[in-house]
Amino acid sequence: MAAAEPGAAPGGGGCAPGGGGGSVPVLFCFSVFARPSSVPHGAGYELLIQKFLSLYGDQIDMHRKFVVQLFAEEWSQYIDLPKGFLVNERCKVRLVPLQIQITTLGNLTPSSTVFFCCDMQERFRPAIKYFGDIISVGQRLLQGARLLGIPVIVTEQYPKGLGSTVQEIDLTGAKLVLPKTKFSMVLPEVEAALAEIPGVRSVVLFGVETHVCIQQTALELIGRGLEVHIVADATSSRSMMDRMFALERLARTGIIVTTSEAILLQLVADKEHPKFKEIQNLIKASAPESGLLSKV
């Protein structure tokens, strides 16, 4: 969630600052939904936000601004959550999206970026359209990540049955290479690895399949407040129709659909960057035009 800020509202509400232990029942309202739950006695704004995310995270557009409001008995309506608010008695709160949507700028810097390489495995080779080309582009991205010191997280979908990552892709220096059965890459081990990297803001995501593992990973990542860049020339599916509609859907959610060259040049940002020449050489070794980008 980009920003959900407590307002400075006159007047109190259904709860007031206080001490004590145990938990307090709270009704959490969002859109047309209302779910009873509880928070620890004395919980403040941050814990309320965490509870909203746990209850409604899959329905909250993380690129919107929100305000948390409290139902005030004295006014018989909701008011912006007062500053310093703590829960000490039963109450009702709601999360309200503001009308103005935050623009996703898509700025990338090596220090705040992680690369996700998703399920580039041997058994997918004959089934995925343009698989040879996305291998080539994916390898170039991983070379760029090594040059720029960007952490790389790799998953393999059920490798016992689908094989390991293809030999052409060099995983040297990857922070994590993890088998999975879940379609999304967002596993507990991946979340723990992300937590170890200070200042992560953006994920560059590529691999297969666009409409399954890539899509589900991207949606989970933005649900956790990260900005996601999908590399269109390094992601594919068995069906170009599935791929096209997945990319269109993801772009509408605020995910950035881009290209490998745009990613690499954005990360160096300046001809005077000490790694520019090496990145430029990677770009010059581009894969032949495959038609992938004409099907975005």
List the helices and strands and how they pair.
Elements: E1 3-5, E2 23-30, E3 33-40, H1 45-56, E4 64-72, E5 77-80, E6 91-101, E7 113-118, H2 131-148, E8 152-157, H3 159-162, E9 176-180, H4 188-195, E10 202-208, H5 210-223, E11 227-236, H6 240-252, E12 256-258, H7 260-268, H8 276-284
Parallel strand pairs: 1-4, 2-6, 7-8, 7-10, 8-9, 10-11, 11-12
Antiparallel strand pairs: 2-3, 4-5, 4-6
Structure in words:
There is one protein chain. This protein has helices spanning 45-56, 131-148, 159-162, 188-195, 210-223, 240-252, 260-268, 276-284, and strands at residues 3-5, 23-30, 33-40, 64-72, 77-80, 91-101, 113-118, 152-157, 176-180, 202-208, 227-236, 256-258. With 296 residues, the chain is an alpha/beta fold. Strands 1, 2, 3, 4, 5 and 6 form a 6-stranded mixed sheet that branches. A 6-stranded parallel sheet has the order 9-8-7-10-11-12, with helices on both faces. Strand 2 and strand 3 (33-40) form a beta hairpin.
**What's the CATH architecture name of the largest domain?**
3-Layer(aba) Sandwich
Largest sheet features: 6 strands, mixed
Please name the fourth-level CATH homologous superfamily of the largest domain.
Isochorismatase-like
Task: Determine Rg (CA atoms, Å).
Answer: 22 Å
Q: How many domains would you count in the coordinates?
A: 2
Helical content, roughly? 25-40%
